[in-house]
Amino acid sequence: MRTVAAMVLGLCIGAVAVIVAQPAKARGGFIVQHDAEIAKNEPGTHDGGGRTIGYSFFDRTPGMKFVFRKRALHPGAGVGLHEQHEDEVYYVLSGKGLMTVDDQPVDMTPGTAVLTRPGSSHSLKQVGSEDLVVLIAYEIK
Protein backbone atom coordinates (compact mmCIF):
# COMPACT_ATOMS: atom_id res chain seq x y z
CA MET A 1 0.00 0.00 0.00
CA ARG A 2 2.84 2.35 0.86
CA THR A 3 4.42 1.64 -2.51
CA VAL A 4 1.21 2.57 -4.35
CA ALA A 5 0.81 5.75 -2.26
CA ALA A 6 4.44 6.68 -2.95
CA MET A 7 3.96 6.13 -6.69
CA VAL A 8 0.81 8.29 -6.75
CA LEU A 9 2.56 11.01 -4.75
CA GLY A 10 5.54 10.84 -7.10
CA LEU A 11 3.31 11.14 -10.17
CA CYS A 12 1.52 14.14 -8.67
CA ILE A 13 4.78 15.89 -7.83
CA GLY A 14 6.12 15.11 -11.31
CA ALA A 15 2.97 16.46 -12.97
CA VAL A 16 3.14 19.68 -10.94
CA ALA A 17 6.82 20.08 -11.85
CA VAL A 18 6.02 19.69 -15.56
CA ILE A 19 3.18 22.22 -15.36
CA VAL A 20 5.31 24.72 -13.44
CA ALA A 21 8.24 24.25 -15.84
CA GLN A 22 6.12 25.11 -18.92
CA PRO A 23 6.83 28.58 -20.26
CA ALA A 24 3.96 31.02 -19.98
CA LYS A 25 1.88 31.12 -23.15
CA ALA A 26 2.62 34.27 -25.10
CA ARG A 27 -0.30 36.63 -25.52
CA GLY A 28 -1.48 37.33 -29.04
CA GLY A 29 -1.37 41.08 -28.60
CA PHE A 30 -3.11 43.73 -30.65
CA ILE A 31 -2.43 46.88 -32.64
CA VAL A 32 -4.56 50.01 -32.71
CA GLN A 33 -4.45 52.48 -35.58
CA HIS A 34 -6.49 55.63 -36.15
CA ASP A 35 -7.47 57.26 -39.44
CA ALA A 36 -5.53 60.44 -38.71
CA GLU A 37 -2.27 58.50 -38.25
CA ILE A 38 -2.33 56.75 -41.62
CA ALA A 39 -4.37 58.95 -44.00
CA LYS A 40 -2.68 59.59 -47.36
CA ASN A 41 -3.91 61.85 -50.14
CA GLU A 42 -3.75 59.72 -53.29
CA PRO A 43 -5.01 59.74 -56.86
CA GLY A 44 -7.86 57.39 -57.78
CA THR A 45 -6.35 53.90 -57.89
CA HIS A 46 -5.87 51.92 -61.10
CA ASP A 47 -5.92 55.23 -63.02
CA GLY A 48 -9.47 55.93 -61.87
CA GLY A 49 -8.93 59.69 -61.74
CA GLY A 50 -9.76 62.30 -59.16
CA ARG A 51 -8.50 62.52 -55.58
CA THR A 52 -8.95 60.10 -52.72
CA ILE A 53 -7.76 59.58 -49.18
CA GLY A 54 -6.38 56.10 -48.59
CA TYR A 55 -6.15 54.45 -45.18
CA SER A 56 -4.00 51.28 -45.30
CA PHE A 57 -4.45 49.76 -41.88
CA PHE A 58 -1.70 47.46 -40.57
CA ASP A 59 0.17 47.47 -43.89
CA ARG A 60 3.54 47.34 -42.13
CA THR A 61 2.54 44.58 -39.73
CA PRO A 62 4.69 41.45 -40.16
CA GLY A 63 2.74 38.31 -40.91
CA MET A 64 -0.50 40.00 -42.02
CA LYS A 65 -2.34 37.68 -44.39
CA PHE A 66 -4.81 40.20 -45.76
CA VAL A 67 -5.14 43.86 -46.73
CA PHE A 68 -7.64 46.04 -44.88
CA ARG A 69 -8.19 49.53 -46.27
CA LYS A 70 -10.59 52.40 -46.15
CA ARG A 71 -10.79 54.76 -49.08
CA ALA A 72 -12.66 58.06 -49.32
CA LEU A 73 -13.30 58.95 -52.95
CA HIS A 74 -13.89 62.69 -53.36
CA PRO A 75 -16.49 63.87 -55.90
CA GLY A 76 -15.54 62.69 -59.38
CA ALA A 77 -12.91 60.20 -58.16
CA GLY A 78 -12.82 56.55 -59.08
CA VAL A 79 -11.09 53.20 -59.12
CA GLY A 80 -10.15 52.37 -62.70
CA LEU A 81 -11.20 49.21 -64.50
CA HIS A 82 -8.90 46.33 -63.64
CA GLU A 83 -8.90 42.54 -63.54
CA GLN A 84 -9.18 40.93 -60.12
CA HIS A 85 -6.56 38.34 -59.09
CA GLU A 86 -7.92 37.40 -55.65
CA ASP A 87 -11.23 37.68 -53.81
CA GLU A 88 -11.80 41.32 -52.88
CA VAL A 89 -14.62 42.82 -50.84
CA TYR A 90 -15.89 46.40 -51.11
CA TYR A 91 -18.24 47.64 -48.38
CA VAL A 92 -19.84 51.09 -48.51
CA LEU A 93 -19.82 53.12 -45.29
CA SER A 94 -21.20 56.38 -46.71
CA GLY A 95 -21.86 58.24 -49.93
CA LYS A 96 -22.90 56.86 -53.29
CA GLY A 97 -21.13 55.26 -56.19
CA LEU A 98 -21.49 53.07 -59.22
CA MET A 99 -19.45 49.90 -59.52
CA THR A 100 -19.25 48.06 -62.80
CA VAL A 101 -18.42 44.35 -62.47
CA ASP A 102 -18.04 42.37 -65.70
CA ASP A 103 -20.03 45.06 -67.54
CA GLN A 104 -22.88 44.90 -64.97
CA PRO A 105 -23.70 48.11 -63.04
CA VAL A 106 -24.08 47.87 -59.26
CA ASP A 107 -25.41 50.81 -57.23
CA MET A 108 -23.10 51.35 -54.27
CA THR A 109 -24.93 52.83 -51.26
CA PRO A 110 -24.31 52.54 -47.51
CA GLY A 111 -24.61 48.96 -46.34
CA THR A 112 -23.82 47.46 -49.77
CA ALA A 113 -21.10 44.81 -49.97
CA VAL A 114 -19.68 43.44 -53.22
CA LEU A 115 -17.37 40.45 -53.54
CA THR A 116 -15.30 40.49 -56.73
CA ARG A 117 -13.84 37.12 -57.67
CA PRO A 118 -10.59 36.26 -59.46
CA GLY A 119 -10.93 36.73 -63.21
CA SER A 120 -13.64 39.37 -62.95
CA SER A 121 -13.05 43.00 -63.92
CA HIS A 122 -14.43 45.99 -62.05
CA SER A 123 -14.32 49.74 -61.63
CA LEU A 124 -15.89 52.13 -59.14
CA LYS A 125 -16.96 55.74 -59.60
CA GLN A 126 -18.07 58.17 -56.88
CA VAL A 127 -21.50 59.73 -57.61
CA GLY A 128 -23.10 62.84 -56.08
CA SER A 129 -21.75 65.59 -53.84
CA GLU A 130 -20.69 63.50 -50.83
CA ASP A 131 -17.46 61.48 -50.59
CA LEU A 132 -17.91 57.77 -51.25
CA VAL A 133 -16.27 55.94 -48.33
CA VAL A 134 -15.60 52.22 -48.70
CA LEU A 135 -13.82 49.49 -46.81
CA ILE A 136 -11.74 47.16 -48.97
CA ALA A 137 -10.31 43.80 -47.93
CA TYR A 138 -8.43 41.10 -49.82
CA GLU A 139 -5.98 38.30 -49.16
CA ILE A 140 -2.25 38.84 -49.62
CA LYS A 141 -0.85 36.16 -51.90
Protein architecture, described:
The protein has 141 residues and is of the alpha+beta class. The protein has a single domain, classed as Jelly Rolls, CATH 2.60.120. The chain has 2 helices and 10 strands; from the N terminus they run H-H-E-E-E-E-E-E-E-E-E-E. The chain has helices at residues 2-21, 35-38, and strands spanning 39-43, 51-57, 66-73, 78-83, 88-94, 96-101, 104-108, 113-116, 121-127, 132-139. The chain is globular. The chain starts with a helix and ends with a strand.
Outline type: globular
Determine the N-to-C terminus distance: 63 Å
Briefly, what CATH class?
Mainly Beta
Query: How would you sum up the major sheet?
Result: 6 strands, antiparallel
| Total helical elements | 2
CATH architecture: Sandwich
Describe the strand arrangement of the main beta sheet, using strand numbers: 1-2-3-10-5-8
Structural class: alpha+beta
Helices and strands, in order, run as: HHEEEEEEEEEE
Question: How does the SSE layout of this entry go?
Answer:
Elements: H1 2-21, H2 35-38, E1 39-43, E2 51-57, E3 66-73, E4 78-83, E5 88-94, E6 96-101, E7 104-108, E8 113-116, E9 121-127, E10 132-139
Antiparallel strand pairs: 1-2, 2-3, 3-10, 4-9, 5-8, 5-10, 6-7, 6-9
Summary tags:
single chain; 141 residues; alpha+beta; 4-stranded antiparallel sheet; 2 helices; 10 strands; 45% strand; globular
Short description:
Helices cover 17% and strands 45% of the residues. It has one domain: Jelly Rolls (Sandwich), CATH 2.60.120.10.
